[in-house]
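Title: Comparing notes on inverse folding

I've been comparing how different people in this forum approach sequence design from structure. To keep things fair, I'm posting one structure and asking everyone to reply with a full sequence. Here's the target:
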């Protein structure tokens, strides 16, 4: 069984509710129908039911909850937002205005337990999706940085199902400090375990392997590796490693013979967003890998951001990936 089918099956057994904040956007509506039909998750669309019936008369809403912020009672959510943000100058009137924003409303539904996770980003930027999540849901204990990962499903080879790798961070933090990079490593390892079912072997990537080059950029990766080992001493994590030393057994043995990760890494941590974003797109486009994500990580409850170029199938897959984060 391939990873996506395995994740979908696991999600279907969990019975979690996911809110799609952009509930009047066509791809989200059609994805909601597919998700409901496949029983991947219970779905709430933030939308006007009248608008949905008018614009998408060919899409049945059977089994899909529709929450219309212009018709439903919002008092509970207004109070929660006010109490969370009053120290930041948000009064009741401002809270009432923000709650009408579907991104804020979805985050509040997750925070209040009315949904188990949230998916958005088909028509909103990453910043707009994550801002209410950071203000309302906040980060996980011990993690100060929200980041992202991509589940990379490599093409099938002679051995059957393709290899699964997890890349981080490829979408959120442009130039992480050593402390942030360490948090990204720990969060990505957790995502690899919970979503992909991997036993994580984490490589902190650089253009240097174990001191083969000297530079302040290398120093950051070395320091991040040290901090990550302190944060999660149970993790198999090593660095700094070049990509070939991380992935190719013969090169790993040659360049870092005492490493438990070199030559066998399945979680790759890129030193900055430029290298991460370029890296996953190269593997996707040139190697033909399927890239699932970005999967957001580091938040107290799951919120996932879509690419604005996403397909209906992308929304279905990201929703399925959100469920294991909520279990």
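Reply #1:
Here's my take.
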């Amino acid at each position: 069984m391939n990873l996506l089918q395995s994740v979908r099956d696991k999600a279907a057994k969990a019975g979690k509710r996911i809110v799609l904040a952009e509930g009047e956007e066509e791809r989200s509506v059609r994805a909601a129908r597919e998700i409901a039909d496949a029983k991947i998750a219970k779905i709430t669309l933030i939308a006007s039911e009248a608008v949905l019936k008018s614009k998408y008369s060919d899409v049945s809403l059977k089994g899909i909850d529709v929450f219309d912020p212009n018709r439903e009672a919002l008092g509970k959510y207004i109070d929660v937002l006010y109490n969370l943000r009053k120290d930041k100058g948000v009064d009741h009137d401002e809270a009432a205005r923000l709650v009408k924003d579907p991104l804020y409303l979805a985050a509040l539904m997750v925070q209040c337990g009315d949904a188990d996770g949230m998916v958005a980003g088909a028509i909103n930027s990453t910043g707009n999706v994550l801002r209410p999540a950071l203000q309302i849901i906040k980060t996980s204990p011990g993690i100060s940085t929200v980041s992202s990962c991509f589940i990379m499903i490599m093409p099938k080879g002679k051995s059957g199902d393709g290899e699964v790798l997890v890349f981080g961070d490829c979408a959120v933090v442009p130039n992480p400090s050593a402390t942030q990079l360490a948090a990204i490593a720990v969060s990505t390892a957790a995502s690899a375990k919970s979503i992909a079912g991997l036993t994580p072997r984490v490589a902190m990537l650089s253009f240097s392997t174990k001191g083969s080059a000297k530079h302040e950029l290398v120093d950051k990766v070395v320091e991040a590796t040290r901090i990550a080992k302190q944060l999660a001493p149970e993790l198999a994590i090593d660095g700094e490693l070049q990509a070939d030393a991380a992935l190719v057994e013969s090169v790993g043995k040659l360049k870092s013979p005492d490493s438990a990760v070199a030559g066998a890494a399945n979680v790759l941590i890129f030193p900055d967003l430029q290298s991460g974003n370029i890296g996953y797109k190269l593997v996707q486009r040139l190697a033909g890998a399927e890239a699932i994500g970005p999967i957001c990580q580091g938040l107290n409850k799951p919120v996932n951001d879509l690419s604005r170029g996403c397909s209906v199938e992308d929304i279905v897959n990201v929703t399925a990936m959100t469920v294991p984060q909520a279990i």
